[in-house]
Amino acid sequence: MQINQVSNQLKALISEKHLIKLAKTSGFQVRHRCLSIVSLLKAVFKSLSCLQDANLSDIHQNLRTQANYTISYKPFHNQIRKPALTELVRELVIQAMSKLTVNTLDKTFFTQRGIQRVLLQDGSSFALHDELAPVFAGRFTAISPAAIELHLTYDLFNEQPCEIDIRPDVETERAFLPVSHTLEDTLLLADAGYFDLDYFEQVSQDGGYFLVRANKNINPTVTSAYCAGVELKEKHIKLKTLLKKRASQPLELTVRWKKIGPEYRLIYLPDEKRPVFLVTNLK
Predict the structure, then answer these.
(1) pTM
(2) Is 280 exposed, middle or buried (0-12, 13-18, 19+ CB in 10 A)?
(3) Strand pairing partners for 229?
(4) CA distance linking residue 218 with residue 264, whole number of Å
(5) Which phi and psi angles does 203 have, rounded to 5°?
(6) Helices in 33-101 by DSSP H: which ranges?
(7) Do 269 and 260 contact (CB within 8 A), yes or no?
(8) What residues pair up with 230 in beta bridges, in sequence order?
(9) pLDDT beyond 90 at 184
(10) 219-256: per-residue pLDDT in tens?
(11) Which band of pLDDT confidence, cut at 50, 70 and 90, is reported for residue 51?
């Protein structure tokens, strides 16, 4: 996508005509007001993009600066707290993503192997003002008593999110994984925070696939081991025992956590600071 094309699409998306139309269809603005949706969104975007800890007062101040008239705080607050504004911004984001995404992933490689979707699951935390801790508790109370986490399920084929959730940072990441029965013929990619053996078993039973990073503390039983395509004699031993001998070598392993439980593939990539452990049910 050319830069000029992106610029033109963004200009059309946030044009005054389009924003007023969205304001009416969302129910945010039924009749013309001095406080327009255009001015309000400009103040919101400017405050959130330029200030590290923006709050409502900052948005109000930006709004007053760009306007040619005095805007009291109460009418400003009455407008910005409307549920319709949330729906308006949500629709604006959806439209932006649909216009600006470009498909770059080769689907054929996956579909030929029976995978119809590839989803990426991840989360990012953001610190808030400390006084919000009773509502948005953070995991690291000494550093950020108040924090939120943005949980995202991203469709790599369509190159856009299919689920977005914002919750207190203290809540476990695993609760926001896609429900296993929705992952038939789907490959799920996730970081170590989403590692959950019970969930992996459910995904496998429902016809789905996963490739998830694990932390270095895992210690399953190794049932077979390969290095550079050559089968190793070490088997039916614990992972940590194997790595005492071969920590410097990349390994492809078959592992099991339960004696009669499912077997998974484990890819080990050595690194002095942070070795990589990838667990998958892909064959």
Answers:
(1) 0.72
(2) middle
(3) none
(4) 13
(5) -60, -45
(6) 37-50, 56-66, 73-80, 83-100
(7) no
(8) 227
(9) yes
(10) 999 999 999 999 999 889 999 999 999 999 999 999 99
(11) confident
